[in-house]
Amino acid sequence: MGNTNYTKKIIDDYCVLDTETTGLSAYYDEVIEIGILRVRDNKIVEQYAQLIQPEYEIDPFITELTGITNEMVKGMPSIMEVKDAVISFLGDDVILGHNTSFDIRFLSEGFSQPLDNVYMDTMQFARKVFPELKHHRLSDLTAYLGLSNNAHRSLADCISTKELYDAIKATMSEKNLKIEDLWKKEKRKQRYRKGIDISTIVPSAVEIDDDGFFFGKHVVFTGTLEKMVRQEAMQLVVNLGGILDNSVTRNTNYLILGNNDYNAILHGEKSSKQKKAEKLKLAGQDIDIIDELTFYDIVNA
User: Fold this and answer.
1) Which residues are catalytic?
2) CA-CA distance, 213 to 182, in Å (whole number)?
3) Using an 8 Å Cβ cutoff, are 48 and 159 in contact?
């Protein structure tokens, strides 16, 4: 993570943030719920929860995933109407979340101004503290650690994230681990992974950072990219430790769509790969659909 606002700390005062959205693209999708917890001395002292009415209707896939319907958000404030309240609630606190950069990117786009708070990511901590887990989604971690149920609703996810951070701190204390022990300044050599279907694309990087977003993840591209040819984008993924596949399977972690293809989702036009990815996600598979612009944000972070 190269963002200068990203940090890794052990602290007792912060805000936990979670958003529910109509997809993973801050450029094409919208926020439909915001949840925030204010934590002081490790205790929740105040909370903020608000449904948001999007400009476009919520897709049935998102309703099935989150439980948020078009009827529930009807008459709710727009994202701009809650801007001042959210910024005021967050204040200058460090923001804690799970995949926090996505939430911050959505709010920055929705508010038409950057959200400049320093932030931390429990997913990055969890990957280091609980390396025995294959997946580090919030749902995986809550089940593994016996935390409050994660329900794909903002406030519930905030509570799970706060409990996860508490568990991370407790585990680090038990094992006498410090921040510098988790993030040692070393790089691992790139390993060529057998089973990559795209045999012509091999790693060109000698070393990679195993904290990278795509490290060890199976990635599928579909549609036409606007900013670069698909092979160049695939090369970026492989250099970051990702594993390329030709088609969406139960192993797939990310389906990356060209902008035009992602935009088509908003009009109900979905490819067979998109439909399969959505079906797998609803069945519990660790898979997400990302647009081209969000992909560039990730690889340039």
Assistant:
1) 152
2) 17
3) no
**Total-model pTM:** 0.85
> Interior CA angle at 277 toward 273 and 18, to 5°?
135
Helix (H, G, I), strand (E, B) or coil at 122: helix
Q: Over the stretch 69-116, which tens digit does the pLDDT of each residue have? A: 999 999 999 999 999 999 999 999 999 999 999 999 999 999 999 999
Ordered alpha helix ranges (H), 92-244: 100-111, 122-129, 138-145, 154-174, 179-182, 230-239
- The low-confidence residues of the chain, meaning pLDDT below 70, are 1-3, 150, 185-208, 264-268
Which domains, ranges and CATH numbers included, belong to the chain?
14-179 (3.30.420.10), 188-300 (3.40.50.10190)
pLDDT by residue (tens digit) across 16-55?
A: 999 999 998 999 999 999 999 999 999 999 999 999 999 9
What residues contact residue 137 under an 8 Å CB cut-off, 6+ apart?
286
Q: Cα separation of 16 and 247, whole Å?
A: 36
- Rounded CA separation 261/275 (Å): 13
d(CA 235, CA 181): 31
| Chain centre distance of CA 87 | 21
